Every structure is written in C-alpha cells, then in structure tokens.
Records
---
Amino acid sequence: MKVGICGLGTVGSGTFNLISKNNSEIERRLGSKVHIAQVGCRREHPDCNLSNVDVSYDIFDVVRNPDIDIVIEVIGGLDVARSLVLEAIRNGKHVVTANKALIAEYGQEIMDAAAEKGVQIKFEAAIAGGIPIVKTITEGLAANRLEWIVGIINGTSNYILSKMSDVGCDLSFIDVLKDAQKLGYAEADPTFDVEGVDAAHKLTILASIAFGIPFSFDAVYTEGISQINASDIGYARELGYVIKHLGIARVQDDNVEIRVHPCLVAEDHMLAQVKGVMNAVMVGGDASGSTMYYGAGAGSSPTASAVVSDVLDIMRASEGKTAGNLGFDNGRLVPKKIVSIEKVVGSAYLRLIVSDQPGVMARISTILSQHEISIESLIQKNTRDDYADVVIVTNAVFEESLDLAIKKLSSMEDVRGDVTRIRVAEFF
C-alpha cells in the first residue's frame, strides 16, 4: 500500500523520518514496508531527505493521486483539513489524522462518509501523543463496560501548574506561561491550551470511543487554568492536594458527564505525580478496574509513533488481520444525554477574601447551611490589613446548589472580589 503525507511540519516530518528510520523493523513485524509515494507540503522540511519521493506543493494533489492508498493528514486546522479528508474519502483512500479538533467537531460527518466508501479513519495521534489510548480502549479494554475516564491531556497546562506548584516558586500564571512559550511548550496564542479547548477536543473523542456516544464537543463543559494563582496552589498543598487540569468523562446510567476544568487531586494519587508536559489517562472498567497510561503527550517523535501505528493497522486490516472503524457507524452509537455541569455532584474548594471582623465566618456558614452544604476542611489566615483568606472544602453537593451559595457569598458586604471555586477530584 502506498502512503501520501499531507503536511511536513513537526508531526509530518517526524512521521516521514520515523518511517524512513524504522522501515526494516516495520517489515519484520508486518511482512511489508511502508512506501511513502508522495508528500504534499508548502515547503520542504530541512530534516527530511525527499530525494526519492514525489513532492507536491499542493496538498490536494496527494488525495487526488490514484496511486495513493493511505493519506496521512497532519496539516492541522479545521476547514482545509476537513475538505482534504472528505476528498480523500470520496476518492476511496484510508485516512490517518493527528487532528483532534477535526475529529471532535466533524467526526461523525467523516465517519459516515468513510462508512459509505468502505475506508478506514484512524486518529490515535489526536489524543495524548505517544500514549496508545485509542487502541487501549478499543482493543485492550474491549470486553469491559467502561465507567469513567480521567486524564491530564494537555501538556501546556500541566507544565504551567507543575511549575507553579514547585516548592519555593513564587511565579504567577503569566510568568510561567511566558516561560512555557520560551521553551516551546506553549504557542504564541495559548488560548486553546490554557482555556481548555484542546483538552475538550481530546475528551470529546475519548468519550465517544469509550461510551459509544456521538461526538459531543459543543456539550463539553470547559474551564481553563488562567485564574489559578499562587495562593490557590499553596492552600491546596496545605490541605494535602495538588491542582491539576483534568478531562473527566463519566457514565451516570443513561447520562454522561463530559467536563474539563481544574481539580484538586490528593497529593498521594498517581495523577498528582504527573508533572511537566507529560500526559496521563486513567480508565475505569467494570472488569479491569482502574488502569493508567502515562507518556509524552506531544512532540514530533511521540506523535509520529501514533501516526505510523495507525498506518500499520490499516495495512493489517487490508489483509483481513484486524477490524476497521470500531463502532462509529450510526446504527451502533448510543444516544446518551450529556449532563449539564449544574447536575454534577462533587466537592469543591472555595477561597474568599473577607473582612477580618467578628461574625463573618458565622454568616458564611449560615449561607452554606441554607444550601445544605457542609464544611469538610477550613483554613483562615490574615493576609493583609483588615482582610483574611478563608478557604473551605465542602462536602459533595450538586453544582447548582453550590452556584447559588457562591452567588450569595459574593454579594456579602464582607466579601471582597469574586469567590474562587476549584472542584475536588475524588471519585477515582
């Protein structure tokens, strides 16, 4: 089978070079080599030896080439990538993509088109880089009824929170973000990463393959980390937690929670040990129990590893050795209601800046009690003249009750500014 690569940036060049370097090992395992027949790119990559490859500066030449069997889409973005992939499918070509936004937002359209033409769509590289989480769910855990998925699935956010959590670090979110940009861990415009959009794209795909539901990106509750400050990091540590940015998908009977937001994670939990730009995904199955998968979530080589593994899966499937698209035809999808964040039950960390006056704590407790919220942990510290920080960890309650209580707390004359809320991760 002949392969065409569309895009020769970080992932595309890594894919080209990995195939070139390891083709003998691939042949040993598969019985045949991967033949890169054409590359479509706007500019050639200096690290790639393209002397024996047909190169076109129009990426659509690749999907229109009748000799190409498998198209690797690594150009990124949405509109052009969608057009490219759909044209490849119309021309009867299998597609491997690393584009999480494309699958999260247009996945069902693409899967339906692929089913009609009898071709395969693979996207292992779209989630968690070098961690083979799609194959783990669809193959290794295929006998399980999966109950939940929790993951650190954005390396930029994890790097920032890890750096801010370093003992002795007094850098602000903005300071650490600038550091991440200098190191190449964050884009010049980091919005997708730090505001949770990238993680929401990945979680959309994970929830779909785990629970058999349609792609539901628009229904994912998404919250970023830009409001986390050093005070929250310090108080979380004092309470025995670290703050992580998590993607959480959980089945509730006929409903599913899909949410991305910061969480307090117990400092002795495995996810609390995932630092820097690394990723980790935990999966809960009824038979397997809880399992965890850890590795590099991005980068040229780890992502290329996932891309090439999908190419090899398609080559095996062409010989009848494995299944094609797993469960994405409309007849096998299960319509489940996505739970709104207000109906989620959980504990929360609240931080309030209050007047350092008698009776304030009693008034706060009264408001919480009116909404059937009890206090599990409490810290109160004088931090500046006439003001104190009050930090509360609540019991598990519905989010809508907590929303009402926070609204009342914010309206108190004794409370200065907004009430900070960070959810507590505890069910896994």
Note: The mean pLDDT is 92.
---
Amino acid sequence: MKIIDALKFTQGAVSKKEFIPALTHFRIEGGHIRSFNGTLALSCPIAIDLDCIPKAEPLIKAIEQCDETVTLSLTKGRLNVKSGKFKASIPCFTEDDTPHVYPTGTEMQIDGEALIKGLKVCAPFMADDASQAWAMGVCLGNQSMYATNNIAAVEYWVGSTMPHCIIPKPCVSELLRIHDAPYKVQVERTSITFHYEGERWLRTQVIDADYPDFDTLLNVESNQKPIDEKIFEGLVKIKPFLDKMAHVYFFNGLMSSVSNTYEGANYELGDDTMEGIYHHGTLLKLKGVAHTIDFSKYPKPCPFFGERLRGVIVGMLEAI
C-alpha cells in the first residue's frame, strides 16, 4: 500500500481536538500506522521503517505534495519528508506512552458484504439527538441490524449471526467510507473491531445502552400496497415551501406544504385514500428503500417493506 493510501485509510480516526495532543498524531511502529480519537481507531500497514508519532495533518499535506520517490528520516523529534526538490519537517510527539489502542476481544466470522449493504440502508435512519444515545448508531443483534430516528424505525435482515452491540454513528460512517467488506470482528463488552484483508482494522467503542423492543413495534399486520413514485416527486417539488417543522400534509388526493389548498404549495397524487401528516425528510428516506407501505394505519405507525427490510414510519399528531 502506498504511503498516501495508508494515511488516507487511517486519517478518519485522527482527533480534531487538542485536549489530548497525542490523539492528533499518527502512531507509526513495526511497519503499521494507527490513529485514535478516543472513540474510533484505525490501523493498516505502511511502508515506513521508522517508529515515530508524527502530527497527522501536516504529514498528510506533505505526502500529498510528493511527486517523486519519498525519503523519510528522523531528526531531533521531527519526521523529515523529502521528494525531489520538496522537503517538509513534521513535528512528532515525543512521549512514547500514548493512548493509541489495539484490537481486543473474542473473534467471530461475519458476512461483511451483507453488513455493508445493511449499513447503507440503515444509516439514514440514525438519530442526531444526543439525549438518546442508543439511537445515535446502528444496533447489531442475532441476524439483523436496527436503526431509528424516533420518527421511523427499520430492521434489515443480514441473514447471518451478528454480535449484539450498538455501533456509534462515526463508526458507521467510517465503515461506509472504507466500503470494503470486513471478514471478521473481535468483540468485548466496551468495543468491537472490524478486520479487513491486508492487516487493516477499525476499532470502536460501542454505545452502552439498551435498545427498544423492535419486535413489538414491527410485528403488526398490514395491508401493503406499492409505493407510488409520485410521492417522492411531490416531496422534491414542495420542499422549498415547507415551514420549519417540515410537515407534509396529505388530503383530497393532494400533497401539500400546509393544511389547506389556499396557501403554500401542493402536488397532485390522485389518491384520495392517502391522508395524514408526515415529516418531509423522514418520508423522503423511504425512496429506493421501501417498496410497499400501508398508509391506512395513520395515525398509528405505518409499516413498510423492502428488500431484506421492514420498518414503520410515524405520522405527526396535528389536526389537518
């Protein structure tokens, strides 16, 4: 692996805050490079036969400017980068004892391809509300994964055994950024590590919380009908006219930005049976994911289904 590729693989776990200076640095030793921001850690092999702890940001910038063969050397606590006529001196952390971590826990083989496919589906349904930490990630368990933003909830069937834990949003983002399929995990009570071919790994702390009872929420009878693509066309058209609550109103065969036909904007659907109020952004997340839905359940949660997927979306309790 080229030096720049190794830096790019591991840069996602470099701390952006200076509270613990060592975490804004890479740890290079034994032919591997590691990063750790206090929650997330990344590691992969690197073609540098040196042991040092260089500042991450300037090292990446320096390597990006190297057009010819790169020569690296250590002088008085600094990593020197030379390529042709270009030279840069990178400050290094001088204390050998740093918080950088290694994988720990029990090993388990997983279906990495199914994991990545499921995360792509579930990631948009994660919450941003820090007061409900359990919703700010994806829950793995049995043969499924779950996510909710408290307006919609989804279950994606992976089809193979998964460790039971909640992986936080930053880890989900990195797994999707890396995109490669991990082939095994190491699991302990407080962390999970995803291993890739080529001696690469991603380690994260897990969210210490209990997830809600999804089976009770999702195991409901329904009368499923194909989702009309005109719904998503209409959501795009009326978006500029929505208020700060982003409510979308369905009545009299229309989708509207307000609760009447005299103001705002509306879009003709031609389906007089669809009534209710939904959150615009969450409803739009169903595009390309849900194939069928039962809107007749409103104001109760409306079940929907897709490939290896089931979920519910909750309507807004506001008078039309």
Note: Helices lie at 3-10, 56-64, 112-122, 169-178, 214-218, 230-238, 280-284.
